[in-house]
Amino acid sequence: MNKIKFQSGSSSLFFKALNKEVGEMLVNTRLIKKATRLLYIKALFYILLFAASYCLLFIIEHASFLSLAFNYVLIGITGILLAFNVSHDACHNSFSKSKKVNYWFYHLTFNLQGTNAYLWQIRHNSSHHVFPNVDGCDADIDDNPFLRLSPQHPLKKWQRYQHIYAIAVYCIYSLHWFLFKDFFYLFKKKVANLQNKKHKAKEYALLFFWKLFYIVFILVIPIISGYETSSTLLAFLIMHICLSLFFIHVLIATHLCMETQFPQRNEAGDLPGDYYAHQLATSLDYAPASKICNWFLGGFNAHAAHHLYPKLPHTTYPEISLLIEKNAKEFNVQYNKLSLPGAIRSHYRFLKMMGNPGNKNTVKDPESDCLTQIKMSVISNL
Questions:
Q1: How far apart are CA 271 and CA 239, in angstroms?
Q2: Which of 16, 190, 344, 350 has the most CB atoms around it within 10 Å of its CB?
Q3: Nearest Cα to 164, choosing from 338, 355, 343, 359?
Q4: What pLDDT score was predicted for residue 371?
Q5: Phi, psi angle pair for 227, to nearest 5°
Q6: Among 38, 43, 81, 109, residue whose Cα is nearest residue 243
Q7: CA separation for the pair 45, 253 (Å, rounded)
Q8: How far is CA 217 from CA 55, 220, 380, in A?
């Protein structure tokens, strides 16, 4: 396969202008210092919130199953918020200047959710962030038998109804990740653009260690402390359903919706447009300048800012997002923004379109007029 590369074009002027304004803002407003302080306050808050949610299992005597189930859901949701607001920044080495601090904060907080930190960091940083929405290069849209998530994927008969049954698939997302997905990626030789990836023996051992630790932490200890096994297992299942639905619906539309693009490589391996315009055309924001959304969602709502500046703390994204939108308008570069309900609706419309036999390939010829226009887009015709 030819080496995949982006083209440089007039849209690079967009990023030069944006980067200049962002740099000036960071210096003139001392934004990094303020953002870092807020990041550490959030880290302490979400660590304590997650710990308190878990401790409630033993502090409060849950006489009813509903009370126990609610406590488990609270553990699941606070755990995912911890991952959003601490793990993700540490994964990108934007939590601390120290790589060791980033490593330990990332691995401890992420593995506590039952998912493997090491494997996700590889897929997230080396595949998804480099080539979002590019078939064969973005691990997040790998072909699967249940959902068609790219116009370049073959259409299966049952996927015609994917916009209807997707909610059932989404309900088991985190549980599937815990039980199967990590093992699948550990032993799979090729994942999107990641080929012949070899893992050290310690990573195999750590994966099994953390899986066992999670089982003991979330199931065995509560059962030993007096909760009925059947009630605990059912509460655990409900927790995963709730956190899966929350996780999916605040994240999946940031790339997989009607507004975003799915660029194709040509035979030489070239992608239309330049790297920075590509990140905007394949991402969707909702309430990106909202500090309330930023507090809860760790900047995932400001996805354009995250893809353009993954090395900056997510607490800088509300201010950066305003500059992104301003410069995108000035340079006529595609910038996608909706409300959260609008983004969710757009995602399900996208699923319906991807399952429609009349839309087997919705992407235009990547070699035609590469530096003119795509829908209001990237100054490229995807």
A1: 41
A2: 350
A3: 355
A4: 30
A5: -75, 145
A6: 81
A7: 27
A8: 11, 6, 50
Tell me which of 55-69, 187-201, 253-267 is least confident.
187-201
Distances (CA, A) of 187 to 199, 263, 284, 331: 9, 29, 32, 45
Query: Is-contact 288 301, C-beta < 8 A?
Result: yes
Euclidean distance between CA atoms 5 and 130, whole angstroms = 10
Residue 305 to residue 299: CA distance in whole angstroms? 8
| Widest Cα–Cα separation across the chain | 67
Q: Where are the beta strands (DSSP E) in the chain?
A: 5-6, 190-191, 194-195, 270-271, 285-286, 337-338
Angle between helix 229-251 and 162-171 (nearest 10)? 130
Q: 113 pLDDT exceeds 60?
A: yes
Write out pLDDT tens, residues 272-311: 878 998 999 999 999 999 999 999 999 999 999 999 999 9
Q: Exposure pattern of 113-146 as b/e (b: 16+ CB <10 Å)? A: bbbbbbbbbbbbebbbbbbbbbbbbbbbbbeeee
Q: Which two tokens stand for residue 327?
A: 């410069």
CA 220, 71, 45, 36 torsion-angle sign: positive
Summarised one tens digit per residue, pLDDT across range 365-382 is: 333 333 333 333 332 323
